[in-house]
Amino acid sequence: MKRTYISLLFLFILSLHALAQEQQVIVPYTLADRDRAILTEAKLGTIEAKISTLEEKINALEAKMDYKFDSQQRQLDDIKTLFYWGFGILISLYIFMMAYMIWDRRTAMQPALSQSAKAEDSSRNLIIILREYSKKHPELAELLRTHGML
């Protein structure tokens, strides 16, 4: 029973569809329609002309922006080059300063080392002289013995 109702409903819908297709009325193309089509084409032509002028303006602005971007890119490249040079100079000065400090320490230590060697030699010579002199003077020999130099 249910199937029959569904099939009847389906047939009813198909028949309505067929009736709707039969009722289409063909309207003739009039002169007013032709004039409207011509006006629409004219308006579309003007709109296309305006769009093309806008596209040209946009292209011109894009070219200006590209030029400005290129000039700014060149400025950034110049600044980057300046930073490279600046850091290179600073690092070179730092390395030079470190090398100068090492060289200065070495040269400053050489006289001190040579003076200490001279002082040792002169103190050895003084001890030898005192020992020789103490052989003739017993008081000096006693003094050197008490201090462990003889």
Fill in the keyword field for this structure.
150 residues, mainly alpha, elongated
Output the helix-strand order.
HHH
Rg, alpha carbons: 57 Å
- The helix tally amounts to 3
Strand content: under 5%
Structural class assignment: mainly alpha
**Mean pLDDT metric:** 85
The rough form would be described as elongated
Task: Compute the separation of the termini in Å.
Answer: 145 Å
What is the share of helical residues? over 70%
- Counted up, domains total 1
Low-confidence stretches: none
Sheet having the most strands: none
Written account of the structure:
With 150 residues, the protein is mainly α. The chain has 3 helices and no strands. The protein has helices spanning 2-22, 31-134, 138-146. Helix 2 packs across helix 3. The model has no long low-confidence stretch (mean pLDDT 85).
